[in-house]
UniProtKB/TrEMBL annotation:
InterPro entries: MeTrfase_TRM5/TYW2, SAM-dependent_MTases_sf, TRM5-TYW2-like_MTfase, TRM5/TYW2-like_N, Trm5a/b_N. This is Class I SAM-dependent methyltransferase. It holds the Pfam family Trm5_N. GO terms for biological process: tRNA methylation. GO terms for molecular function: methyltransferase activity. Keywords: Cytoplasm, Methyltransferase, S-adenosyl-L-methionine, Transferase, tRNA processing. Signal peptide: none annotated. It comes from the Archaea. Gene3D superfamilies: 3.30.70.2580, Met-10+ protein-like domains, Vaccinia Virus protein VP39. Residues 81-328 form the SAM-dependent methyltransferase TRM5/TYW2-type domain.
Length: 329
C-alpha cells in the first residue's frame, strides 16, 4: 500500500522519528522501510509534519504493521496508565492488581523500560513521592514534550506530564529578548523552551537535584547560554535580578502567594506574571487576584488578562492559572 513517508538519511532517522512523534505525525500502522542510505518513515497526517521536513514527503509502498497488543487486550480491562518517557506509571492500592498490570505492560507492545506504582502522595518542600518499582530497575528517564527532551528522576524531582499543554500555552507567549524568571523551575519544562524562543531565563528551584537536571537539560536542548540555573530559595537567591523581569512564572500552586513580594521585587516596568493556584470551585480566581493586588500595592497596576482552569485537582477544587500584566505606576 502506498502511504506518505518522510525520506531522510539513515543517520538522521532516529532524530527525525522523534520529531515526528513529538508532532503526533507518526503512522503506527505501517512499517519504517530502509533502502540503501535512506530511511522512509510513514506519517499519518502530512499537515502535522514540521515545515522543514515537509518537502521530504513522498509516496511509497509500506508494509502494514501487526496491530500492537495493548495492556487492555492482555488484561481484559482498561488499566489507568500514565506515560513519562520510557516509564509507565500506575496508581493501584492492590499490590496483586498492580503486579498484574505491570506484567501486562511489559508483555505488550508499549515502548516501556520500567513500570512504577505510586507508593506515597507528593510530600515535603521538594514535592517528591515514593515509588514501588514493579518492573525494570530505575526511576530515571528522558521525557519528550513539544520538541524538547527532559532528563529527570521521578524519585528525586517533581514533574507532571499532564501539564504539557498548559506549559506550551505559556511558552508560546514568550518573545525573543525577554528576561524571564522561572521562580520554581524544576528540571526546566518552562525554562528550556522559553530559552529556545530566544528569552534569557533565570531558573530557580529549592531542589538542588532538579537544578542539576535543569542544567543538563539546557545543554541537551542547546540553550545553556540562555539559562542561568540557581539552587536555593528564590526569596534569597535572586536579589541581583530585582526590577529586571519581563515575565515571571510562579508554578507552585499551594503556596505561590507566599512568594508574591519577591515576584513584585523582580518585576520590571512591565511584566507578565503566570500565577498558579489551587482553589475551591466557588471562587477559583478571586483569592489569587486579591493576593497579587495586595502584593503590588501602589507600585504596579494589575490587569488580569486570562483566568484559566488548568485541571481538576480534587473534588470541588481546581488547579488554575492567572495571566496577569503588571505595569509600574
Amino acid at each position: 500500500m502506498s502511504v506518505p513517508c518522510v525520506a531522510v538519511a539513515r543517520e538522521r532517522g532516529e532524530h527525525v522519528r522523534e520529531r515526528l512523534a513529538d508532532a503526533d505525525a507518526l503512522d503506527s500502522d505501517h512499517e519504517i522501510a530502509v533502502d540503501g542510505n535512506t530511511i522512509y518513515i510513514p506519517v499519518s497526517d502530512p499537515e502535522r509534519v514540521p515545515s522543514d521536513l515537509a518537502e521530504q514527503i513522498e509516496m511509497r509502498d509500506a508494509a502494514e504493521r501487526d496491530r500492537p497488543k495493548t495492556p487492555a487486550e492482555i488484561l481484559g480491562f482498561e488499566p489507568s496508565l500514565e506515560r513519562l518517557g520510557d516509564i509507565v506509571i500506575v496508581d493501584e492500592d492492590d499490590p496483586d492488581r498492580a503486579a498484574a498490570i505491570a506484567e501486562a505492560v511489559m508483555a505488550s507492545d508499549l515502548l516501556c523500560e520500567t513500570v512504577l506504582n505510586r507508593a506515597s502522595p507528593i510530600e515535603g518542600e521538594l514535592r517528591v513521592r515514593q515509588w514501588d518499582v514493579l518492573a525494570g530497575n530505575g526511576t530515571e528517564t528522558v521525557h519528550r514534550e513539544y520538541g524538547h527532551a527532559f532528563a529527570l528522576d521521578v524519585a528525586e524531582v517533581y514533574f507532571s506530564p499532564r501539564l504539557a499543554t498548559e506549559r506550551h500555552r505559556v511558552v508560546t507567549q514568550v518573545d525573543a529578548g525577554e528576561t524571564v524568571v522561572d521562580m520554581f523551575a524544576g528540571v526546566g519544562p518552562y525554562a528550556v523552551p522559553m530559552a529556545s524562543r530566544g528569552a534569557d531565563v533565570v531558573a530557580c528551584d529549592l531542589n538542588s537535584t532538579a537544578i542539576e537536571y535543569l542544567r543538563a537539560n539546557a545543554e541537551r536542548n542547546g540553550v545553556a547560554d540562555r539559562v542561568t540555573a540557581i539552587a536555593g530559595d528564590v526569596r534569597e537567591t535572586t536579589t541581583e535580578y530585582a526590577d529586571t523581569a519581563d515575565r515571571l512564572v510562579m508554578n507552585l500552586p499551594h503556596s505561590a502567594d507566599e512568594f508574591l513580594d519577591t515576584a513584585v521585587a523582580l518585576a520590571g516596568d512591565e511584566c507578565a506574571l503566570h500565577y498558579y493556584d489551587i482553589q475551591h470551585e466557588d471562587d477559583p480566581f478571586g483569592p489569587g487576584t486579591e493576593a497579587i493586588r495586595a502584593a503590588a500595592g501602589d507600585e504596579y497596576a494589575v490587569d488580569v488578562e486570562t483566568e484559566r482552569l488548568v485541571r481538576s485537582y480534587a473534588p470541588h477544587e481546581y488547579n488554575v492559572c492567572l495571566d496577569v500584566r503588571l505595569t509600574r505606576m
